[in-house]
Amino acid sequence: MPEIVIVVALVCVVAMLAVGAAVLLRARDVLERVVALDLLTVICVMLLALLSYLREVSYYLDAALALAALSFVATLAAVKSDGGGGPFR
Amino acid sequence: MTATALEALGVALIALGIATTAVTVYGVVRMSGLYTRLQAASKASMLGAVAILAASVGTRDGATIARAVVVALFLLLTTPVAAHAIAQAAYRRDREASRSSEEEAAAEADASRRTPNSSSRSTSRPITAPNCDS
After folding, report:
1. Nearest CA to A51 among B132, B88, B56?
2. 8 Å CB contact between B22 and A37
3. Helix (H) or strand (E) holding A76
4. Which of A22, B1, B60, B106 is exposed most, by the fewest CB atoms within 10 A?
């Protein structure tokens, strides 16, 4: 793929990351913060994928998989903990 | 020929993913309330991420495509589960809040109904109790 396309896409993704961080800071609620963090994680996965295409190194996608898995577990644990129970209840 | 077609497909998928994610972020910024934000964030962000991961066909590298498929399958599996957990927690919280406020209102009504009989001479009757003169 032409590099310029990937670079432009990276710039767009970084801008969306900044907007997502603003949403995270402006959230008034625990669950809204969890939603914003989930969105930020998906945007980070996209960032890692684009970086992998740009540098032609496939190992960035391993980091993306680990990040997605950690985010999934963290979301479930935070939601359960907000509901008043532990993560295993 | 095939290489050019695959690269064009990759560029188109990247453009689709960026556009979808931009719409998602705009929706999360613009919408108010947890449920609307949640549906904007969970559905469209997953489509954008999967489109960008599918753009790995443009690299024509086997390892990259295989890893991208694994990440896309993982996102397709876990994003709805996480969104459902968040929505369930929000629903339970709202329901418990409305139930506790209803119970408080019922207790207040009960107390104001019982006050004229049990302590008719008491001077500390609630002001809001109806028909205290009987």
Report:
1. B56
2. no
3. helix A60-82
4. B1
By Cβ distance, the residue of B38, B49, B55 closest to A42 is B49
Rounded Cα gap, residues A60 and B63, in angstroms? 11
pTM of the full structure: 0.82
Mean pLDDT by runs of 10 across the 134 residues of chain B is 89 94 93 89 86 91 92 94 92 88 86 65 52 50
Contact A65/B49 with Cβ under 8 angstroms? Answer: no
Min CA distance, B100 vs chain A (Å)? 15
**Rg over CA atoms, chain B:** 29
And the tokens for B28?
């999360």
Token pair for B128: 């809001």
Residues of chain A contacting residue B34, judged by C-beta atoms under 8 Å apart: 29, 31-32, 35
**Angstrom distances, CA of residue B41 to CA of A40, A70, A89, B73:** 10, 18, 26, 18
The answer to whether ipTM exceeds 0.85 is: yes
User: Contact B51/B13 with Cβ under 8 angstroms?
Assistant: yes
Chain B residues lying within 8 Å of A22, measured CB to CB: 29
In whole angstroms, give the CA distance from residue B88 to residue B98: 15
Q: Which two tokens stand for residue B22?
A: 């931009």
Q: Judging by beta carbons within 10 Å of its beta carbon (0-12, 13-18, 19+), is residue A17 exposed, middle or buried? A: middle
